[in-house]
Fold:
Amino acid sequence: MRKPVLAGNWKMNKTVAEAVALVAAMKDELGQLSSVERVLCPPFMAIPEVARLVAGTGVGVGAQDMYWKDGGAFTGEISPLMVKEFCSHVIIGHSERREHFGESDESVNLKLKAALAHGLFPIVCVGETLALRQEGRTEAWVAGQVKAALAGLSAEQVGRVVIAYEPIWAIGTGLAATAAEAQRVCKEVVRATVAELYGPAVAQGMRIQYGGSVTPANAPELMAQPDIDGALVGGASLKAADFVAIVRAAVQAK
Ligand code: PEP
Structure:
């Protein structure tokens, strides 16, 4: 049985004071929904305060990115040692970082290895653009991203990795993939690629999230899909009631 994982990616939103208010509005309810894994990924500035507030609730904290080196002359970066002081999880290779900040398949792989070496649970994002989708290249693109991200990892390491399938055309657009399409890619592309690389047992154990305009309205159908093991939620994770409703939908569907 795969425990679903629901992560809220706050992106570059919320000051520390706003983050405190958001956590206060949902931490009791999130704390009760313990049959699924719940993770909040605030901006770096708010991480220590959010970690302090959720301590003891069972809700985890994740970073939205990190560098792969432990320390040194890398102005502006955050190291795995700093992340793991407060976080259990780290998002790696979000499409916004790939698009705006030069994140490459190679840096994703280095960050993934660093996260695993430091005992963090990585959430690795993959997904195709609208153009790739229209050209019929979704499958090859997503499989290629999965292979590049996991290059050089052992089966044991892969067991700790969560992959988030996030079609870029669905992120922040209000146009979520249909449940059938999300299920198809999660199963026939992401899980099948992991099976090709590591065999069926590792693939069956891997948790695969869907991300892209998940809302309380579409979460019940998405979370009911057999190969979707939770969600990476952007916009809706900024509203306490919406994020709680999405987590609740996963609890009820699984
Ligand atoms: C995301 O940030 O990963 C995301 C899926 O955003 P949204 O839910 O707003 O589409």
